[in-house]
Specification:
This protein is α+β, with helices and mostly antiparallel strands and 464 residues long. 25% of the residues lie in helices and 30% in strands. Strand 1 and strand 2 form a beta hairpin.
Protein backbone atom coordinates (compact mmCIF):
# COMPACT_ATOMS: atom_id res chain seq x y z
CA UNK A 1 0.00 0.00 0.00
CA UNK A 2 2.82 2.39 0.91
CA UNK A 3 4.46 1.99 -2.50
CA UNK A 4 1.18 2.08 -4.40
CA UNK A 5 0.13 5.31 -2.73
CA UNK A 6 3.36 6.98 -3.75
CA UNK A 7 3.07 5.83 -7.33
CA UNK A 8 -0.54 6.90 -7.69
CA UNK A 9 0.23 10.25 -6.11
CA UNK A 10 2.38 11.28 -9.07
CA UNK A 11 -0.06 10.10 -11.69
CA UNK A 12 1.19 6.61 -12.50
CA UNK A 13 -1.00 3.57 -13.00
CA UNK A 14 1.14 0.47 -13.40
CA UNK A 15 0.01 -3.06 -14.15
CA UNK A 16 2.69 -5.74 -14.54
CA UNK A 17 2.63 -9.46 -15.13
CA UNK A 18 5.26 -11.98 -16.12
CA UNK A 19 4.42 -11.41 -19.78
CA UNK A 20 3.79 -7.70 -20.11
CA UNK A 21 3.93 -4.35 -18.43
CA UNK A 22 1.60 -1.53 -19.31
CA UNK A 23 2.27 2.01 -18.16
CA UNK A 24 -0.12 4.93 -18.34
CA UNK A 25 1.23 8.35 -17.57
CA UNK A 26 -1.45 10.79 -16.45
CA UNK A 27 -1.40 13.55 -17.56
CA UNK A 28 0.02 12.22 -20.84
CA UNK A 29 0.35 15.49 -22.74
CA UNK A 30 4.05 16.23 -22.31
CA UNK A 31 3.83 19.47 -24.30
CA UNK A 32 1.13 20.97 -22.09
CA UNK A 33 2.98 19.82 -18.98
CA UNK A 34 5.73 22.30 -19.90
CA UNK A 35 3.49 25.36 -19.87
CA UNK A 36 4.70 27.68 -17.11
CA UNK A 37 1.72 29.59 -15.75
CA UNK A 38 4.04 31.66 -13.54
CA UNK A 39 5.83 33.39 -16.42
CA UNK A 40 4.81 35.60 -19.34
CA UNK A 41 7.68 34.27 -21.44
CA UNK A 42 6.47 32.44 -24.54
CA UNK A 43 9.42 30.14 -24.89
CA UNK A 44 8.19 28.37 -28.02
CA UNK A 45 8.17 31.62 -30.00
CA UNK A 46 11.28 33.50 -28.85
CA UNK A 47 13.68 32.80 -26.00
CA UNK A 48 16.84 34.19 -24.50
CA UNK A 49 20.04 32.13 -24.67
CA UNK A 50 22.68 34.32 -23.02
CA UNK A 51 22.69 37.32 -20.68
CA UNK A 52 25.35 40.03 -20.57
CA UNK A 53 24.68 42.11 -17.47
CA UNK A 54 26.35 45.46 -16.79
CA UNK A 55 25.27 47.02 -13.51
CA UNK A 56 26.28 49.49 -10.81
CA UNK A 57 25.47 48.98 -7.12
CA UNK A 58 24.38 52.15 -5.28
CA UNK A 59 24.06 51.63 -1.53
CA UNK A 60 23.12 55.25 -0.89
CA UNK A 61 19.88 54.91 -2.88
CA UNK A 62 19.52 51.11 -2.53
CA UNK A 63 19.27 50.86 -6.29
CA UNK A 64 20.85 48.72 -9.01
CA UNK A 65 21.08 50.40 -12.39
CA UNK A 66 22.36 49.06 -15.69
CA UNK A 67 21.73 47.15 -18.89
CA UNK A 68 20.63 43.56 -19.45
CA UNK A 69 21.68 42.49 -22.95
CA UNK A 70 20.43 39.22 -24.38
CA UNK A 71 21.25 36.92 -27.25
CA UNK A 72 17.94 35.51 -28.41
CA UNK A 73 16.63 32.63 -30.46
CA UNK A 74 13.49 33.42 -32.39
CA UNK A 75 11.22 30.99 -34.20
CA UNK A 76 9.56 33.38 -36.62
CA UNK A 77 8.25 35.51 -33.76
CA UNK A 78 7.58 39.25 -34.05
CA UNK A 79 7.70 39.77 -30.28
CA UNK A 80 9.68 38.53 -27.33
CA UNK A 81 8.23 38.54 -23.82
CA UNK A 82 10.08 39.28 -20.58
CA UNK A 83 8.96 39.06 -16.96
CA UNK A 84 9.40 42.22 -14.88
CA UNK A 85 8.19 43.33 -11.48
CA UNK A 86 8.88 46.63 -9.71
CA UNK A 87 11.48 47.67 -12.30
CA UNK A 88 11.77 50.95 -14.18
CA UNK A 89 12.46 50.35 -17.87
CA UNK A 90 14.05 53.39 -19.54
CA UNK A 91 14.94 52.23 -23.07
CA UNK A 92 15.09 49.05 -25.14
CA UNK A 93 17.37 48.37 -28.10
CA UNK A 94 17.83 45.65 -30.70
CA UNK A 95 20.68 45.09 -33.14
CA UNK A 96 20.66 47.17 -36.32
CA UNK A 97 20.03 44.89 -39.33
CA UNK A 98 22.18 47.17 -41.51
CA UNK A 99 25.18 47.05 -39.20
CA UNK A 100 25.41 44.35 -36.57
CA UNK A 101 27.98 46.38 -34.66
CA UNK A 102 25.29 48.95 -33.91
CA UNK A 103 21.97 48.98 -32.09
CA UNK A 104 18.71 50.79 -32.70
CA UNK A 105 15.88 51.72 -30.38
CA UNK A 106 13.09 49.17 -30.27
CA UNK A 107 9.38 49.44 -29.66
CA UNK A 108 8.14 47.93 -26.44
CA UNK A 109 5.12 47.93 -24.19
CA UNK A 110 4.41 46.80 -20.67
CA UNK A 111 1.17 44.90 -20.12
CA UNK A 112 -0.05 44.85 -16.55
CA UNK A 113 -0.06 41.27 -15.36
CA UNK A 114 -0.80 40.18 -11.80
CA UNK A 115 0.66 40.46 -8.33
CA UNK A 116 3.66 38.40 -9.45
CA UNK A 117 4.73 40.64 -12.31
CA UNK A 118 4.10 42.29 -15.66
CA UNK A 119 4.73 41.39 -19.30
CA UNK A 120 7.43 43.43 -21.07
CA UNK A 121 6.87 42.89 -24.82
CA UNK A 122 9.63 43.89 -27.23
CA UNK A 123 9.04 44.09 -30.99
CA UNK A 124 11.56 42.07 -33.01
CA UNK A 125 11.97 41.08 -36.67
CA UNK A 126 13.73 38.52 -38.85
CA UNK A 127 17.11 40.15 -38.20
CA UNK A 128 16.88 40.50 -34.44
CA UNK A 129 19.52 38.51 -32.59
CA UNK A 130 20.10 40.73 -29.55
CA UNK A 131 17.91 42.74 -27.18
CA UNK A 132 19.26 45.28 -24.69
CA UNK A 133 17.14 46.62 -21.83
CA UNK A 134 18.24 49.67 -19.84
CA UNK A 135 16.60 49.63 -16.41
CA UNK A 136 16.90 50.22 -12.71
CA UNK A 137 15.46 48.56 -9.65
CA UNK A 138 13.14 50.24 -7.16
CA UNK A 139 12.56 50.17 -3.43
CA UNK A 140 9.96 47.45 -4.04
CA UNK A 141 12.36 45.05 -5.80
CA UNK A 142 11.85 42.17 -3.39
CA UNK A 143 14.77 40.01 -4.54
CA UNK A 144 17.16 42.66 -3.21
CA UNK A 145 17.99 42.54 0.48
CA UNK A 146 19.79 45.76 1.49
CA UNK A 147 21.28 45.47 4.99
CA UNK A 148 22.44 48.30 7.20
CA UNK A 149 25.89 47.93 8.83
CA UNK A 150 24.36 47.00 12.19
CA UNK A 151 22.64 44.03 10.51
CA UNK A 152 25.99 42.47 9.58
CA UNK A 153 28.52 40.62 11.70
CA UNK A 154 31.19 43.32 11.31
CA UNK A 155 28.74 46.21 11.77
CA UNK A 156 30.92 48.56 9.71
CA UNK A 157 29.71 48.31 6.12
CA UNK A 158 26.31 47.69 4.50
CA UNK A 159 25.55 44.46 2.68
CA UNK A 160 23.46 43.36 -0.29
CA UNK A 161 22.34 39.92 -1.38
CA UNK A 162 19.75 38.71 -3.86
CA UNK A 163 17.22 35.93 -3.51
CA UNK A 164 15.68 35.17 -6.92
CA UNK A 165 14.04 31.91 -5.95
CA UNK A 166 11.40 31.10 -7.03
CA UNK A 167 10.05 33.91 -9.25
CA UNK A 168 11.86 36.98 -7.91
CA UNK A 169 14.74 37.35 -10.37
CA UNK A 170 12.28 39.42 -12.41
CA UNK A 171 12.39 42.02 -9.62
CA UNK A 172 16.09 42.81 -10.16
CA UNK A 173 16.66 41.79 -13.81
CA UNK A 174 14.17 41.95 -16.70
CA UNK A 175 14.22 38.31 -17.80
CA UNK A 176 12.23 35.30 -18.95
CA UNK A 177 11.76 34.10 -15.40
CA UNK A 178 10.92 30.43 -15.87
CA UNK A 179 12.81 27.29 -14.75
CA UNK A 180 11.93 25.87 -18.18
CA UNK A 181 14.69 27.95 -19.75
CA UNK A 182 18.43 27.79 -19.14
CA UNK A 183 20.95 30.45 -20.11
CA UNK A 184 24.62 31.24 -19.74
CA UNK A 185 25.63 34.66 -18.46
CA UNK A 186 28.45 37.09 -17.93
CA UNK A 187 28.34 40.22 -15.82
CA UNK A 188 30.27 43.37 -15.04
CA UNK A 189 29.53 44.76 -11.59
CA UNK A 190 30.67 48.13 -10.25
CA UNK A 191 30.69 48.13 -6.45
CA UNK A 192 32.00 50.43 -3.70
CA UNK A 193 35.80 50.29 -3.46
CA UNK A 194 35.97 48.65 -0.03
CA UNK A 195 33.45 45.91 -0.87
CA UNK A 196 33.63 42.62 -2.78
CA UNK A 197 30.83 41.42 -5.09
CA UNK A 198 30.17 37.73 -5.69
CA UNK A 199 27.86 35.93 -8.11
CA UNK A 200 26.74 32.40 -8.97
CA UNK A 201 29.69 32.18 -11.35
CA UNK A 202 33.49 32.30 -11.36
CA UNK A 203 34.35 34.63 -8.48
CA UNK A 204 37.23 36.87 -7.37
CA UNK A 205 38.93 36.07 -4.08
CA UNK A 206 39.97 39.59 -3.13
CA UNK A 207 39.02 43.21 -3.74
CA UNK A 208 40.60 45.15 -6.59
CA UNK A 209 41.54 48.81 -7.02
CA UNK A 210 39.16 49.50 -9.91
CA UNK A 211 36.08 48.33 -7.95
CA UNK A 212 34.81 46.71 -11.15
CA UNK A 213 34.46 42.96 -11.37
CA UNK A 214 33.68 40.54 -14.17
CA UNK A 215 31.87 37.22 -13.83
CA UNK A 216 31.27 34.31 -16.19
CA UNK A 217 28.84 31.42 -15.84
CA UNK A 218 29.55 29.19 -18.84
CA UNK A 219 27.07 26.48 -17.87
CA UNK A 220 23.38 27.13 -18.68
CA UNK A 221 21.31 27.74 -15.55
CA UNK A 222 17.68 28.71 -14.85
CA UNK A 223 17.13 32.42 -14.10
CA UNK A 224 16.29 31.86 -10.42
CA UNK A 225 19.91 30.80 -9.88
CA UNK A 226 21.41 34.11 -11.00
CA UNK A 227 22.64 35.48 -7.68
CA UNK A 228 24.59 38.48 -6.43
CA UNK A 229 26.04 39.54 -3.08
CA UNK A 230 28.13 42.58 -2.14
CA UNK A 231 29.77 43.30 1.19
CA UNK A 232 32.86 43.19 3.37
CA UNK A 233 33.77 39.65 2.33
CA UNK A 234 36.93 37.56 2.66
CA UNK A 235 37.93 34.17 1.23
CA UNK A 236 39.63 31.03 2.54
CA UNK A 237 40.63 28.13 0.34
CA UNK A 238 39.57 24.69 1.63
CA UNK A 239 40.55 22.23 -1.10
CA UNK A 240 41.58 22.02 -4.74
CA UNK A 241 38.25 23.43 -5.97
CA UNK A 242 36.54 24.31 -2.70
CA UNK A 243 36.59 27.36 -0.47
CA UNK A 244 34.54 29.55 1.82
CA UNK A 245 33.55 33.24 1.72
CA UNK A 246 32.36 35.10 4.82
CA UNK A 247 32.66 38.35 6.65
CA UNK A 248 36.23 38.51 8.08
CA UNK A 249 35.12 37.87 11.66
CA UNK A 250 33.34 34.64 10.67
CA UNK A 251 35.90 33.21 8.26
CA UNK A 252 37.94 31.05 10.67
CA UNK A 253 34.85 29.49 12.25
CA UNK A 254 33.34 28.79 8.82
CA UNK A 255 36.56 27.21 7.54
CA UNK A 256 36.65 24.81 10.48
CA UNK A 257 32.95 23.98 10.26
CA UNK A 258 33.13 23.11 6.56
CA UNK A 259 36.29 21.00 6.73
CA UNK A 260 34.45 17.90 5.47
CA UNK A 261 33.31 19.48 2.20
CA UNK A 262 36.03 17.78 0.12
CA UNK A 263 35.07 14.37 1.51
CA UNK A 264 31.44 15.05 0.57
CA UNK A 265 32.48 16.13 -2.91
CA UNK A 266 34.56 12.97 -3.41
CA UNK A 267 31.66 10.77 -2.28
CA UNK A 268 29.18 12.51 -4.55
CA UNK A 269 31.47 12.23 -7.56
CA UNK A 270 32.10 8.53 -6.89
CA UNK A 271 28.35 7.81 -7.00
CA UNK A 272 26.87 10.36 -9.41
CA UNK A 273 29.72 11.35 -11.71
CA UNK A 274 32.09 14.27 -12.08
CA UNK A 275 31.31 17.67 -10.59
CA UNK A 276 30.65 19.94 -13.59
CA UNK A 277 30.80 23.45 -12.12
CA UNK A 278 34.52 24.32 -12.05
CA UNK A 279 34.57 25.43 -8.40
CA UNK A 280 32.42 24.84 -5.33
CA UNK A 281 32.46 27.59 -2.72
CA UNK A 282 30.32 28.19 0.35
CA UNK A 283 29.26 31.70 1.31
CA UNK A 284 28.16 32.46 4.87
CA UNK A 285 25.62 35.28 4.81
CA UNK A 286 24.45 37.61 7.61
CA UNK A 287 21.80 36.24 10.02
CA UNK A 288 18.92 37.86 8.13
CA UNK A 289 19.30 35.34 5.29
CA UNK A 290 15.85 33.68 5.36
CA UNK A 291 16.85 30.16 4.31
CA UNK A 292 19.14 27.45 5.62
CA UNK A 293 20.89 27.50 2.27
CA UNK A 294 20.42 28.41 -1.38
CA UNK A 295 22.03 26.31 -4.07
CA UNK A 296 23.39 29.06 -6.30
CA UNK A 297 25.84 27.36 -8.72
CA UNK A 298 29.47 27.48 -7.62
CA UNK A 299 28.49 29.59 -4.60
CA UNK A 300 26.03 28.08 -2.13
CA UNK A 301 24.52 30.72 0.17
CA UNK A 302 24.60 29.42 3.76
CA UNK A 303 23.02 30.66 6.99
CA UNK A 304 25.49 31.48 9.80
CA UNK A 305 23.32 29.51 12.24
CA UNK A 306 25.00 26.37 10.89
CA UNK A 307 28.27 27.38 12.60
CA UNK A 308 27.70 25.19 15.66
CA UNK A 309 31.40 24.51 16.27
CA UNK A 310 31.08 20.71 16.12
CA UNK A 311 29.99 20.09 12.49
CA UNK A 312 26.70 18.68 13.77
CA UNK A 313 24.65 20.57 11.19
CA UNK A 314 26.72 19.84 8.10
CA UNK A 315 23.98 17.77 6.45
CA UNK A 316 22.81 21.19 5.23
CA UNK A 317 26.12 21.47 3.34
CA UNK A 318 25.58 18.02 1.88
CA UNK A 319 22.14 19.17 0.73
CA UNK A 320 23.41 22.29 -1.03
CA UNK A 321 26.28 20.32 -2.58
CA UNK A 322 23.79 17.68 -3.78
CA UNK A 323 21.99 20.39 -5.75
CA UNK A 324 25.05 20.48 -8.00
CA UNK A 325 23.91 17.14 -9.44
CA UNK A 326 20.15 17.44 -9.14
CA UNK A 327 18.31 20.73 -9.54
CA UNK A 328 21.21 22.84 -10.81
CA UNK A 329 22.10 20.29 -13.49
CA UNK A 330 18.58 18.90 -13.99
CA UNK A 331 15.88 21.44 -13.21
CA UNK A 332 12.09 21.22 -12.88
CA UNK A 333 10.58 22.54 -16.13
CA UNK A 334 7.76 24.23 -14.21
CA UNK A 335 7.06 24.80 -10.54
CA UNK A 336 4.46 22.02 -10.73
CA UNK A 337 7.48 19.69 -10.90
CA UNK A 338 9.32 21.17 -7.93
CA UNK A 339 9.66 17.77 -6.27
CA UNK A 340 12.22 16.90 -8.95
CA UNK A 341 14.46 19.62 -7.52
CA UNK A 342 14.15 18.87 -3.84
CA UNK A 343 13.14 15.21 -3.67
CA UNK A 344 16.16 14.22 -5.75
CA UNK A 345 18.39 16.54 -3.75
CA UNK A 346 17.29 15.18 -0.38
CA UNK A 347 17.86 11.66 -1.69
CA UNK A 348 21.41 12.51 -2.88
CA UNK A 349 22.13 14.44 0.34
CA UNK A 350 21.25 11.44 2.50
CA UNK A 351 23.16 9.10 0.21
CA UNK A 352 26.24 11.32 0.73
CA UNK A 353 25.74 11.44 4.50
CA UNK A 354 25.28 7.67 4.66
CA UNK A 355 28.69 7.15 3.06
CA UNK A 356 30.30 9.94 5.09
CA UNK A 357 29.06 8.83 8.49
CA UNK A 358 28.50 5.13 7.84
CA UNK A 359 25.69 3.15 9.40
CA UNK A 360 22.29 1.97 8.25
CA UNK A 361 19.95 4.70 7.01
CA UNK A 362 17.01 2.41 7.78
CA UNK A 363 17.40 3.41 11.45
CA UNK A 364 18.81 6.90 10.87
CA UNK A 365 16.96 9.17 13.34
CA UNK A 366 16.95 11.98 10.77
CA UNK A 367 15.01 9.79 8.35
CA UNK A 368 12.66 8.61 11.10
CA UNK A 369 11.93 12.23 12.02
CA UNK A 370 11.55 13.14 8.35
CA UNK A 371 8.89 10.47 7.94
CA UNK A 372 7.03 11.77 10.98
CA UNK A 373 7.19 15.31 9.55
CA UNK A 374 5.84 14.03 6.24
CA UNK A 375 2.88 12.36 7.94
CA UNK A 376 2.16 15.57 9.84
CA UNK A 377 2.21 17.55 6.59
CA UNK A 378 -0.10 15.08 4.85
CA UNK A 379 -2.60 15.36 7.69
CA UNK A 380 -3.06 19.11 7.17
CA UNK A 381 -2.96 19.24 3.35
CA UNK A 382 -5.63 18.42 0.80
CA UNK A 383 -5.30 15.39 -1.47
CA UNK A 384 -4.26 17.64 -4.37
CA UNK A 385 -1.60 19.30 -2.23
CA UNK A 386 -0.05 15.96 -1.30
CA UNK A 387 0.65 14.95 -4.91
CA UNK A 388 4.23 15.14 -6.02
CA UNK A 389 3.10 16.54 -9.36
CA UNK A 390 1.38 19.77 -8.39
CA UNK A 391 -1.12 21.97 -10.20
CA UNK A 392 -0.42 25.39 -8.73
CA UNK A 393 -1.84 27.45 -11.60
CA UNK A 394 -0.89 31.09 -11.15
CA UNK A 395 -0.41 30.77 -7.40
CA UNK A 396 2.87 31.72 -5.79
CA UNK A 397 5.22 28.72 -6.21
CA UNK A 398 6.46 29.29 -2.65
CA UNK A 399 3.08 28.08 -1.39
CA UNK A 400 3.71 24.62 -2.87
CA UNK A 401 7.15 24.21 -1.32
CA UNK A 402 6.19 21.94 1.54
CA UNK A 403 7.51 18.68 2.95
CA UNK A 404 5.72 16.95 0.07
CA UNK A 405 8.37 18.01 -2.45
CA UNK A 406 11.27 17.35 -0.08
CA UNK A 407 10.31 14.35 2.01
CA UNK A 408 7.67 12.60 -0.06
CA UNK A 409 9.99 12.98 -3.05
CA UNK A 410 12.79 11.41 -1.00
CA UNK A 411 10.69 8.50 0.25
CA UNK A 412 9.39 7.82 -3.26
CA UNK A 413 12.96 7.49 -4.54
CA UNK A 414 13.99 5.48 -1.50
CA UNK A 415 11.13 3.09 -2.12
CA UNK A 416 12.45 2.52 -5.63
CA UNK A 417 15.90 1.91 -4.12
CA UNK A 418 14.46 -0.68 -1.73
CA UNK A 419 12.71 -2.38 -4.67
CA UNK A 420 15.67 -2.62 -7.07
CA UNK A 421 18.62 -2.49 -4.68
CA UNK A 422 21.06 0.32 -4.00
CA UNK A 423 23.57 -0.73 -6.69
CA UNK A 424 20.97 -0.57 -9.45
CA UNK A 425 19.58 2.67 -8.04
CA UNK A 426 23.03 4.27 -7.96
CA UNK A 427 23.65 3.21 -11.56
CA UNK A 428 20.26 4.52 -12.66
CA UNK A 429 20.75 7.86 -10.94
CA UNK A 430 24.19 8.33 -12.48
CA UNK A 431 22.87 7.52 -15.97
CA UNK A 432 19.83 9.75 -15.43
CA UNK A 433 22.04 12.69 -14.44
CA UNK A 434 24.28 12.17 -17.47
CA UNK A 435 21.29 11.95 -19.80
CA UNK A 436 19.53 15.14 -18.64
CA UNK A 437 22.40 17.39 -17.50
CA UNK A 438 21.77 21.09 -18.18
CA UNK A 439 18.16 20.41 -19.18
CA UNK A 440 14.79 21.23 -17.65
CA UNK A 441 12.42 18.27 -17.35
CA UNK A 442 8.91 17.44 -16.20
CA UNK A 443 7.64 14.74 -13.89
CA UNK A 444 6.45 12.88 -16.98
CA UNK A 445 9.96 12.96 -18.44
CA UNK A 446 11.35 11.44 -15.25
CA UNK A 447 8.72 8.72 -15.07
CA UNK A 448 9.22 7.83 -18.74
CA UNK A 449 12.94 7.44 -18.15
CA UNK A 450 12.42 5.55 -14.90
CA UNK A 451 10.31 2.91 -16.63
CA UNK A 452 12.56 2.83 -19.68
CA UNK A 453 15.79 2.31 -17.77
CA UNK A 454 14.92 0.68 -14.46
CA UNK A 455 11.44 -0.65 -13.82
CA UNK A 456 10.31 -2.26 -17.08
CA UNK A 457 11.12 -5.96 -17.56
CA UNK A 458 13.16 -6.77 -20.64
CA UNK A 459 11.13 -7.09 -23.87
CA UNK A 460 7.98 -5.82 -22.16
CA UNK A 461 5.27 -3.98 -24.10
CA UNK A 462 4.90 -0.39 -22.95
CA UNK A 463 1.93 1.87 -23.66
CA UNK A 464 2.41 5.51 -22.71
Amino acid sequence: MYKLLFLLSIGIISCQSSQEAKVIINPSNHLNSRVDSNSFAQLDSARITHLSLNIRIDFDSSIIKGVAAYNIKRNGATQIHFDIKDLEISRVFVNDPNDFRKIKEAKYEIIKGNEYGDDLIVTIDDYTSTVQIAYKTTSKSSALQWLRPQQTYGKKLPFLYTQGFAILTRTWIPIQDSPGIKITYNATVAAPRNMLPLMSANNPIKKNIKSSYTFVQSNPIPPYLIALAVGDISYQKLGNITGVYAEPGLLDAASEEFEEIDKMLTIAESIYGAYQWNKYDLFVLPPSFPYGGMENPQLSFITPTILAGDRSLTSLIAHELAHSWSSNLITNATWNDFWLNEGLTVYIERRIMKELKGGDDMVDPIIVLAYQDLLSAINVLTDDETSLKQNIGQSNPDDAMTDIAYEKGFFFLREIEKTVGIEKMDAFMKKFIQEFSFKSITTEDFIDYLYQELLIPENADVNI
